[in-house]
Amino acid sequence: MEMDTIAAISTPMGEGAIAIVRISGDEAVNIADLIYQGKKSLKEVETHTINYGYIVDPETNDKIEEVMVSVLLAPKTFTKENIIEINCHGGIISVNRILQLIISHGARLAEPGEFTKRAFLNGRIDLSQAEGVIDLIRAKTDRAMNVAMSQLEGKLSKRIQKSRQDLLETVAHVEVNIDYPEYDAEEMTLALLKEKAHDVKADIENLLQTAQQGKILRDGLSTVIIGRPNVGKSSLLNNLVHDNKAIVTEIAGTTRDVIEEYVNVRGVPLRLLDTAGIRETDDVVEKIGVERSRKVVGDAELVLLVLNYNEELTESDEELFHISKGKERIIIINKTDLERKINMERVKQLANEAPIVSTSLIKDEGVDELEEAIKVLFFQGDIETTDLTYVSNTRHITLLQEALRSVSEALEAIDAGLPIDMIQIDITKTWELLGEVIGESVHESLIDQLFSQFCLGK
Ligand code: GDP
Ligand code: ZN
């Protein structure tokens, strides 16, 4: 495959951080050598070495930066091409100058995800592994990172490949049967087909069972806090954010900047949407009212409904129970340090099955119980013990669901005594669908779309 040489800054930029400029392609070493001065030419050093030197503009002879340059020759590299990595001290200006120099000496600026795309196109990783890289970049918790890592390492791929291999073997058997009908093995072939189809079905079901948790780990659980003014919503948000590692991101493309805060609650990444304007003045919260809460609740996967222990339930409280019905929710009774005025019997009635947690946020009490309730609600406490082959990606889930349907149809066809070549159609289809998960029969455009989700330089 003919591919040009690409370059990009492959670390997030920030003050003082170490930045890496990465080059990949046939000309990587030659281009880097043109702008490098060290003890030896980069063309003469051994592969997989780190070399100390300077980046110098060959036109002006200006020393731009003191650097460490890794030389990694094909094929034992991430892209299976020659790779140069230039480590510099950061500083946006000098990193950019180095990148500019590389580009003016023959490399092209890489598109987002292009390094990983090359790894895929050069057969270094399969598609589900490449998607693992995307997830790794986006992972918000250690566990999500582990899941992405395991996908990157090919655990999901291996399971899928095993199922495909099983199906292929049965198809081979069927072929023999069709070609040599006199070789009377139909009984045996059917039995084998049934057994293998069963195994494959069970494995797909197992994988799909991890999907709900997998998706939460990957995407976070969109969570809203609702409650009347002054019950303690802001206090709760602050408490969760301060207790846990929070990553604040802004949702692009919205007119009003909606702030998202990711907090890692015992391995559950909560995506706290401050659409209710909790961070703003309580004035605004007052104006938001029940109508707005209804809208906010609509998009959420988890609702934290806060009530005041020190006040009687109001009509608004009842209304908030009503609009969050049918959602996963946790009822929080706050201000337990004050005198009880709330009717707990009525709260229990309204809460139905939802867990009720008492807190005194001002005294930092009850937050542990709340966090435990969140974890139990989503992971039933068993997440630690299961292995990390989670299916977390919507594309995979959809394909696996289709594969499950077609393997089930094959099993039904066997039981109904349909001709063996009919059964084979379903088996072949299952095999193809599983192949799509690992990218063995996907369209070019799908691939382009997938890789464009990467950050630049990955
Ligand atoms: P929000 O309007 O729902 O966002 O409520 P805030 O979090 O802004 O809290 C309203 C007021 O209640 C503030 O003065 C808080 O300090 C106070 N508050 C919050 N939690 C507690 C609590 O557990 N006990 C008591 N006594 N006061 C609290
Ligand atoms: Zn507030």
Topology, element by element:
Layout: E1 6-9, E2 19-24, H1 28-34, E3 36-38, E4 49-56, E5 63-72, E6 83-88, H2 92-104, E7 108-109, H3 114-121, H4 127-138, H5 142-152, H6 155-179, H7 186-209, H8 211-219, E8 221-227, H9 233-243, E9 246-250, E10 259-265, E11 268-273, H10 282-299, E12 302-308, H11 315-323, E13 328-334, H12 344-351, E14 356-359, H13 367-379, H14 394-415, H15 420-437, H16 444-451
The protein binds guanosine-5'-diphosphate (GDP) and zinc ion.
Guanosine-5'-diphosphate binds near residues 285, 360 and 361.
Tell me about this structure:
The structure is a single chain. The protein is an alpha/beta fold and 458 residues long. It folds into three domains: 6-110, 2-Layer Sandwich (Gyrase A, domain 2), CATH 3.30.1360; 129-210 and 391-451, Four Helix Bundle (Hemerythrin (Met), subunit A) (Up-down Bundle); 219-379, 3-Layer(aba) Sandwich (Rossmann fold). It is 47% helix and 18% strand. It is built from 16 helices and 14 strands. The strands form two sheets. The protein has a seven-stranded mixed sheet, with helices on one face. It has a seven-stranded mixed sheet with strand order 9-10-11-8-12-13-14, sandwiched between helices. A hairpin with a 2-residue loop joins strand 10 (259-265) and strand 11 (268-273). Helix 7 (186-209) packs antiparallel against helix 14 (394-415). Residues 246-258, 279-287 and 381-386 have low confidence and may be disordered. Guanosine-5'-diphosphate binds next to helix 9 and helix 10.
